[in-house]
Amino acid sequence: MTMQRDEPILYLVIPCYNEEEVLPETAKRLTEKLYAMSGAGLVSPQSRILFVDDGSKDATWRLISEYSAAIPFVDGVKLAHNRGHQNALLAGLMTAMPLCDCAISMDADLQDDVDAVDRFVEKYKEGCDVVYGVRNKRETDTFFKRATAEGFYKVMQLLGVEVVFNHADYRLMSRRALEGLSEYGEVNLFLRGIVPLIGFKSDYVYYDRAERFAGESKYPLKKMISFALDGITSFSVKPLKLISNLGILISVLSIFGLLYALISYICGVAVAGWTAIVCSIWLLGGLQMLCLGVVGGYIGKIYNEVKRRPRFLIETHLRQEHRED
Ligand code: UDP
Ligand code: MG
After folding, report:
1. Ligand 1: distance of its center to the CA of 95 in Å?
2. Which of 105, 178, 259, 295 is the most buried (most CB within 10 A)?
3. Tens digits of per-residue pLDDT, 192-242?
4. Which ligand is nearest the CA of 226, by number?
5. 163-176 pLDDT per residue, tens
């Protein structure tokens, strides 16, 4: 049995940081889209475009306020300070959560194909709670960006982090998926890693990613690297385990080193004192690394505890009987 959901109140959540150059076009296209969709009865007329101003220094907020005053479909929130893309996104999604049936997050620069929105909503109506936008190919990216981005997904998968390949932050989440997200209390936010952990029925929508419509990327290399590192260290304690393994490896090697040194000593080819020094360097090095790994193991545990992530989210409850009291 497939459940068909009614036309939802859809919120388009758009984080904006210094986007004055693209905003007029973005607002125009998204408004047209929502008008068309609500006109066709695909989404509720209460749907909104929610712009999140992430502490911009240019005219972004002024533009958002103007659009909001002039266009009933447009809403906006302003963050008190620039907190970065992921936090701006979360702020928007959490603002939308009590107001919407589902929310789609997309970038302000029109790189995410606006026309794919219909397909996201279709999947939602078919009963999906999370729909991931996956880009078809990376032709519009420079070789460097493509290589680093794809390498990043590979490393994440190697480290055991569940991420959707070639999916950025263009995605639909239903209200209950958003409620699930709100249970994740972590400060180092990496939404691409968290959303798959929420679970629920999910699907993919494939789209071609365009080039930035105007203006410069707000993700320079430095931010990209720190974003990637954040993603890894927020989701995996494997780097800590690697230290333990390295310690074990060196300890084992040191046994061979010991044997070698002893044999050299017995055969009389070793310089006086060399054997003792070499043996202790190897053994101690290995032991230190191993101990570090053990400490790392505990830190890993603390790290997972302090996140206070929800341990489960219930998807269905068969007998949801209401108590009358
Ligand atoms: N963004 C943001 N806060 C920031 C940096 C970026 O809200 O500190 C927004 C930006 O306005 C855009 C989205 O995040 O809507 C993605 O940024 P951008 O397009 O510059 O990244 P790229 O596509 O180059 O990776
Ligand atoms: Mg962009």
Report:
1. 19
2. 105
3. 888 998 889 999 999 988 877 877 887 777 887 878 887 787 778 788 888
4. 1
5. 888 888 999 999 99
